[in-house]
Amino acid sequence: MVSKNETKLTSLLNIRLGIFLTIFVMFAGVNTVALAQIKLGYVDSQSIVAKSADALTAQNKLAELNKAWQAEALEKENELKRMQEDLEAKQLMLSEQTIKEKQAQMQNLYLEYQQFQQVKWGPQGELQKEQARLMEPIITKINEIIKKVGNAEGYDYIFDVAAGNIVHVSAKQVNLTEKIIAELAKPAAK
Question: Per residue in 42-58, is it b (16+ CB within 10 Å) or e — as a string?
Answer without folding.
Answer: bbbbbbbbebbebbeeb
